[in-house]
Specification:
- This protein is an alpha/beta fold.
- Helices cover 30% and strands 26% of the residues.
- The chain is built from 6 helices and 7 strands; from the N terminus they run βαβαββαββαβαα.
- Strands 1, 2, 3, 4, 5, 6 and 7 form a 7-stranded mixed β-sheet that branches.
- Strand 5 and strand 6 form a beta hairpin.
- Helix 3 crosses helix 4.
- It is elongated and about 55 Å long.
- The two termini are 18 Å apart.
């Protein structure tokens, strides 16, 4: 069986770094899918559909590739939060999150153009946030980091200082569940080592 090229349908540097860390050097081809088209209140369903749409947008550009699409949102008290639109929204989000917890959902889609297969799954991780002063929240927002991430924090950046604990998959919070990826590859008939450089 041939091994397809691994394509990441995402502009996320964090997702690319996660793949590189485990020996996969993806071709990066960001999806231009307009996420605002999808209005769903269930976070698991939302991230699955968005990850699938992103992968489907990119897949036709590659004849024999394995295309991965991902999408993450943070749910707090059942309410879905994506990337904050501006500093004020990030500030309000942190006032809500601090001293509490949220569930980080990431949808994962693999489209195997070589064998005409598609798999769509999601992973959820509970994240507990520290109690923060307004001064700390303002200083963190001033770095710009919270504006680039679903949930307004980057676990692998300064935001890691404000996470007390995690229940579930650590890499899922960064944007891609490595254990789930391994299982999905196996379900499609591959070994993760097939994609090592």
């Amino acid at each position: 069986m041939g091994i397809p090229t691994f394509v990441l349908a995402s502009a996320s540097a964090a997702r690319r770094r996660l793949l590189q860390t485990v020996g996969i050097e993806p071709i990066v081809c960001p999806s231009d899918f307009d996420e605002s088209q999808v209005k769903i209140s269930d976070p698991a369903q939302l991230v699955e559909i968005l990850s699938q749409r992103k992968a489907e947008t990119v897949a036709p550009r590659f004849e024999s590739a394995l295309v991965m699409g991902c999408d993450s949102v943070l749910a707090i008290n059942g309410e879905i939060h994506g990337k904050p639109t501006d500093a004020e929204e990030a500030r309000q989000r942190w006032r809500l999150m601090q001293g509490s917890f949220g569930d980080l959902y990431t949808g994962h889609t693999l489209i195997d153009n070589l064998h005409q297969n598609i798999l769509v799954k999601h992973q959820v991780t509970r994240v507990y946030f520290a109690q923060l002063s307004d001064r700390t929240i303002d200083a963190y927002i001033a770095t710009g980091e919270p504006l680039k991430c679903a949930g307004a924090f980057a676990l692998e950046g300064r935001g890691g200082l404000f996470v007390e604990k995690i229940e579930g998959c650590h890499s899922n919070v960064i944007g891609l569940s490595l254990p789930l990826l391994r299982r999905m590859l196996e379900e499609l008939g591959y070994e993760v080592a097939d994609f090592w450089n």
